[in-house]
Amino acid sequence: MKKELILLSLLLISLIYYAQSNQATLPNNFNNCQVSLDQAVEELQEIKTQNELNFEFKIVREVTEREECIDKILGTNLEQGAELQNGLLLDLVVGVVKNSDNAKTLTKEISLYQNSFAQYIDSQDYDSVTLINYKICCIENTHPNSGSKPLGYIDVFQDKLFFLSNTGELIYSNLDDFKQNATKIPQTVIDSNIKKITDKFNFYSGFRRLNKEASYNNIGQDGWGESFKDVLIIEDKLYVSFTEQINQGCVKMSIIVGDINFQYIEFENFYSTKDCVDPNVEPYNAQQASGRMLHIASDNKLLFAVGDFKKFDLPQDQDSEFGKIISIDLLNNESQIISIGHRNIQGMALIYDEKVISTEHGPKGGDEINIISIDNVENYGWPISSYGDHYSEYLKTTYASVAPLNKSHSEYGFVEPIFYFTYEEINSNGFSQIISNYFDSTSDFFVTSLNGRTIYNLQVTNGPIKLTQFIQTGERIRDIIFVESKKLYILLQEDTPKLSLLIDR
Length: 505
Ligand SMILES: [Ca+2]
Ligand SMILES: [Ca+2]
What we know:
Elements: H1 2-19, H2 37-50, E1 56-63, E2 73-76, E3 89-96, H3 103-107, E4 118-125, E5 129-135, E6 152-157, E7 160-165, E8 170-174, E9 184-185, E10 188-192, H4 194-198, E11 228-234, E12 237-247, E13 250-259, E14 264-265, E15 268-272, E16 290-296, E17 301-306, E18 324-329, E19 335-340, E20 345-351, E21 355-360, E22 368-373, E23 378-379, H5 393-398, E24 419-420, H6 423-426, E25 431-436, E26 445-449, E27 454-459, E28 466-472, E29 477-483, E30 488-493, E31 498-504
Parallel strand pairs: 1-3, 10-14, 19-23
Antiparallel strand pairs: 2-3, 4-5, 4-9, 5-31, 6-7, 7-8, 8-10, 11-12, 12-13, 13-15, 16-17, 17-18, 18-19, 20-21, 21-22, 22-24, 25-26, 26-27, 27-28, 29-30, 30-31
This protein binds calcium ion (2 copies).
The site of one calcium ion has 7 residues, from loops.
């Protein structure tokens, strides 16, 4: 029956193919392991040249039990015989052996970002600042079709902007190339072993626009949220945090590090949480992994925020690293927990001497801003106390004892947030990064948001704590950095998606 179906579809595909043979179409043998990856790539290059077409293709690896399908095309995201047009993105789904290191296919991988440029779109003027927007690759891997994987993260090294995408491409552009009205900003992809390290289970498979056949059920909940969680450059080293899928039953939060080089970066493990969370045991959510990193130069420490993955019992467990901030010594990798009772920290910055100011996602409501001591271990309450509520009646009832979400923190012996949103005030906001405000001396920080698509001004040190709207960018702001040498901020915004320069007027 299966064979007949395949034959029938082949016949249909051939008919469609011949009916449209005056156009460039997807070859009819790009399925069911008929052609090798090499052949397919060669054929597509030929089609592009002959028809003067400009479309991109990407390799999606899928584990297969069928030996004859290793390194062969299992299928594509398009119907067989589909017309190949400019701007199209074609997925070649290639068979790989289970648990192989996939090194062979990786060397042949075609990058989603290889031929793309940041392209100037427009400038938005606000009272005191201007936002200069550059469209970047790619709409296919943005929220909400990215399986809730952040689009990526940015940082600056010397005169270069580094960008790590959620598809594992590491890219840099020269900061000098970003000038108003410059239409295209060249970018260079840096080769690395980052995909080899991270490409396990569903790390790259949750992209719904990219991979219509994406299997959402191979680990955890719908393949959501397993992703990179931050990048950080310290001197000439690049640190990357991510959810590391050790095996079917074990997810850790890890940091890898590599010496910066513009051709190739070899990453190695820098830190992994000692324990795992089990993605097969509900509730589980890798969007609640935190992963933000902050360098404390005076102590030569790296602070690492580790989320709770929705495991309600871990943040209050003193021995578990989940739902904590960990301090890691950059010299000997020794670590200690510096604060407990966190759900999902998204942003961290320094404040005063030796204190951290952090933003944190609540559940339904309850986004918090906290001031955290590095020296004393204090408890920030989650999930005993929170100004948010459970998303469902089911969670509320089932986890009533371990996660009562009492409103007051102080009554239960916890540190109160210096600021919080209730759901009634703002619905779903989603703070992302927090960063010093270098533009306005009367305000201390900028706080960016995802769903709120807003930058807030936060005043902490001058008088009463006040959070006010600064500008609405209209896009989910995933990351923000300050470029000292140019006195400007760069935002990574994940709707269009785009890079935006924030300039003082
Ligand atoms: Ca960062
Ligand atoms: Ca709290």
